[in-house]
Amino acid sequence: MKSIYLDFAAASPMDKEVFLAMKPYLADNFYNPASQYLAAKSVRKDIEKARSGIAHWLGIRPGELVFTAGGTEANNLAVNGVMQRFPGANIVVSSIEHDSVLKSASRYDTVIVDVDNDGLVCLEKLKKAINDQTVMVSIMYANNEVGSVQSMKKIAEIINSVLQSRKNISNDLPLYFHTDACQAAAYLDLHANTLCVDMMTINAGKIYGPKQSGALYVRAGLAILPQVLGGGQELGLRSGTENVANIVGFAKALDLVQTRRIKEVKRMSKLQSTFIELLERAIPTVTINGSKKHRLPNNVHITVPGTDNELLMMQLDEAGVQCAVGSACSASNDEPSHVLKAIGLSDEAARSSLRFSMGFQTTELEVRKTVLLLEKILNNSGYFGDKSQPK
Question: Does residue 387 carry a pLDDT above 70?
Fold first, then answer.
């Protein structure tokens, strides 16, 4: 039986159109775009065309986009690039940020804002967390584990209110708003002006593009310090010879997912509803984690009380279903997910949780098969007892 892949939040297969767009730059058009002969200049033009294509979907100027080797590097550039300019200032982040934000922020004076049980930032706590020395707020647009989608507009309103108050007391310290939008790009609007952000991280590896290909939007006029030094590529903010194939593939991938976004969100939302309904019917003890209303349409995160999630994951894998026990970036960590703990799950519940994340290739038949296989595994383990009822 063909495997049922339900871990698109960790990695997505490359779209065939993306591969075809990249292919020439892996062989014939191999030139260093910094070289001065005509063939190299042609490659340089292709990079700038790709930059303009991505900028279109973000509603920004091409010169406001910096290419990086993935979302992790872009998050590091955003946090360190700002905070190193303001010694003594602090940064505010949410408790469910990706480790690339949390670990970067931990180098500085950091205030961590709690989320509620749905994984949504507590806005009142955010207001209180920002003080006169806060120079940056970094809040993830859509969470990679439980799929919660933040109200970016409300967060931006709080930030703007703080900036207005600072004017009244002659505090000219800036307050920048950054968001990690790596999981959002296939399903949500990315226009920077709509989101009211100063910086935004996106990642091709999550949208059927090449891995190790990311970008950071940096609003014009916002000065950040480079973290990778060398030849001064990417407007001096990210040195190193550009990965032309990845950049071209990134632009193609973003164009594809954003073009089909509205139609795919509708399809995926129906799949998600079916998935959750079947799970709740088959396993009455199951808990759906995260917000049902403010959620990525491809995310289904569950707790099956009294089970071992690693064992369940391996049993599903053997049965032909690939899912996750948490973020792939911290899979080697024995500690329970910091995201699940932040939304109020106990260590025991966190270790009984699974993440299913669907994608462009996922079908209703695959969803139905997955629930049947999970139910069968639990039944064979005696989970439902003699009368097929939960213990």
Answer: no
